[in-house]
Amino acid sequence: MTAELVRGQNHPLSQARLEIRVSAGAPIVASATLGDENGKVHGVEWVAHPGAPTLPGLEVSKQAAAGHRLAVDLAAVPEAVHRVCVLLALPVGVGGPVRFGAVAAPFIAVTGLDGTEVASYTITGLDAESAVVALELYRRQGAWKVRAVGQGYAGGLAELLTDQGLPEAHRLASGINDAVAQGLARSVQAPPQRTADGDRTRQTAAPAPGPDQSGPTPQVGSTPQGAPGPVPPHATSPYAASGAQPGYPAGPAPADPATVTQPAAPTAGGPVDYSHPRRQTGAPPSPPPTAPPARPGQPAQPVAGDANGWSMDERLYNQIWGMFEDLARSTAAYRSAVDFAESRMEKELDQTLSDPRSRIGGQGDAAREAARAKHAQLVDQARASLDRDLGQLAAEADVVEPALPPAFARWDNPVWHGYRVPMEIPMALRLGDLHLPESELLRIPMLVRLPLERGLWIDSGQAGLSDDSFADSHELRRLALDTAVALAARLLAVYPAGEFGVHVIDPAGSGVQAFAPLVQSGVLAAPPALGAAGVADVLARLTQRVDLVQMAVRGGMADALPPGLDTAEQLLIVHDFPHGFDDRAVTQLRYLADEGPAVGVHLMMVADREEAAAYGPLLDPLWRSLLRLTPVPDDHLADPWVGHAWTYEPALVPPGSQVLQQVLARVAEARAKGR
What stretch of H or E contains 372? Predict the structure, then answer.
């Protein structure tokens, strides 16, 4: 599984030959430095940059571009090298952005030669910086790891290289800028404009979000934008031996870079490949809305979409993540203050009890009362600070929630009443809401990146719930199915017509009533599979699809796929597991869970883990590979910063609402028109 890193987090690397893919919202310069055990760069010959793009075991791009591929062979780097740092910088003197705060957050992914993503990192929090150490590959006890760094420098490349101990930092930075300026006319061409009929450009997605995840979906018969050209035979390149571009199917030959031009900044109206692979917008970046001026002594009024981003959806997505971080840190500060008050009171009480003189008369009682009063004062101060932060976040939530697009919105949001089938895949999907015990009324949307990187497990059992008061197992199963149907309908609704298919396995037919909205609307790829024969048939077809697409992607033979193969993403909903599953079916299910997301086949289990206990530890990897969701509120999710236990609430359709049926009817209508 892909590790989506946060700043400072590391992840082991199991292979030496890698590719580092960078996606940004504007042309940037990608470089790399080789460092010793202390991270020091001993000379310009230890830096790979556009003017000198190859070093032993390392190759970078020769041009500024919004997308980069860096080739790395860790087995070929010199023994003295213990760190490989990937550097990103904005070009100087070309009329483009001069600080990373003005562009979309760069996204960087480490992949294997087959395109399988090992780790990814979105570099957030940059503002005035014009150069950044994105990540580093480092050697530790004979093994290599990758660490997300995200260290920015307002002084640009010169300051960055100086910080790494390079004596000729300013001269080298000037040389890099000159090389970029001379080669800017050969920058990688921007993605083509969307055609008038609304068809969007489909990009090849190499196998690549706690709420945030992302995942790949291979698109057959296209060539990735920004793919590097062939490696010259004399170059010391990790790909020189094979001459391959791993992880991509064959496509038309790229144009000669020398004949391609691209302006330093995106042209108006042209789609921009930004921040994260496989996401596009048809509009240039626009400044976020500004809040009305606050009255003296009053906090600024919140505005929906006031975060950084190249589209309103991205700004809202980043704003929601900011709210999530703010609530996590404010709550952590409150809990820390309460813990301090508790420990201080206990210490003062212990000191009082340890002095025999304090036990005579009222001296001891007075000391105890004083300790309790100090404790209450500290707790009240901490609570007042938390309440102030919660008030600001609640005011922000009140303006953000109504402004959300359908993919981010609750089912009771009026935006669903004006729903239209989209032309592009959104960047994220709402799975539910998150909140903490100190902020019961404040809900933060739980968003996951699309395409899904992990399967989903809707837990219909009671064993894992934090609240044992829910005793009706039949009602819990019904709610689990309702949650699955609501999530499947949401996925169908946010994908363009015909680009997402849903299959259902219901061996005993016990989910007929719950699956009725999907069946009656006609959005299912086929009727729900019943019995052992139905289970075997669906699993065989989806397993074959995974095998064929994997072979096509890895072998570069996309044209060899059967003409009738549906290349749209697929979701398999499994109900009543393990009923109707034999050993072969269980093996196929595990295969789909492990290999399916990388090629657009996703799994949604509606199951009680205890019912599959007969298989023993065989299925433990299956459950661990899935994102567990519960049909009732439960505190089983943790954030990556302070480890709070967040209470998750599913995104269910309000009782009596017909919004789900209306949305599915429009999806079915759009599909019928597209046939």
Answer: helix 363-400
What are 612's strand-pairing partners? none
Indicate whether 260 pLDDT > 60. Answer: no
The Cα–Cα gap between 311 and 317 comes to 10
Measured distance CA(20)–CA(247) in Å, rounded: 12
Burial group, residue 236, by CB count within 10 angstroms (0-12, 13-18, 19+)? middle
Q: Which amino acid type is present at position 151? A: Q
Q: How far is CA 503 from CA 42, 602, 631, in A?
A: 58, 10, 21
Q: What b/e readout covers 581-590, taking b as 16+ CB neighbours within 10 angstroms?
A: beeebbebbb
Residue ranges in 164-204 assigned as alpha helix (H): 169-183
Task: State which H helix or E strand residue 650 sits in.
Answer: strand 645-650
For 131-181, the pLDDT digits (tens) are 999 999 999 888 999 999 999 999 999 999 999 988 889 999 988 888 887
Classified as helix, coil or strand, 215 is coil
Q: What is the pTM of this model?
A: 0.58
Whether pLDDT at 233 is above 60: no
Q: Which residues of 496-534 are buried (b: 16+ CB within 10 A; e: fewer)?
A: bbebbbbbbbbbeeebeebbebbeebebbbeebbbeeeb
Q: Indicate the range of 45-49, 229-233, 349-353, 478-482 predicted with least confidence.
A: 229-233
What CA–CA distance (Å, rounded) separates 552 from 65?
28
Asked whether the predicted pLDDT for residue 625 surpasses 80, the reply is yes
Give the pLDDT confidence score for residue 302 in this predicted structure: 83
Helix (H, G, I), strand (E, B) or coil at 69: strand
d(CA 675, CA 672): 6
How many angstroms separate the CA atoms of 654 and 136, rounded? 47
Give the confidence band of 416 by pLDDT, cuts at 50, 70, 90.
very high
Bridge partners (DSSP) of residue 145 are 12, 138
Q: Is 559 exposed, middle or buried (0-12, 13-18, 19+ CB in 10 A)?
A: exposed
- Specify whether the CB–CB gap between 153 and 159 falls below 8 A: yes
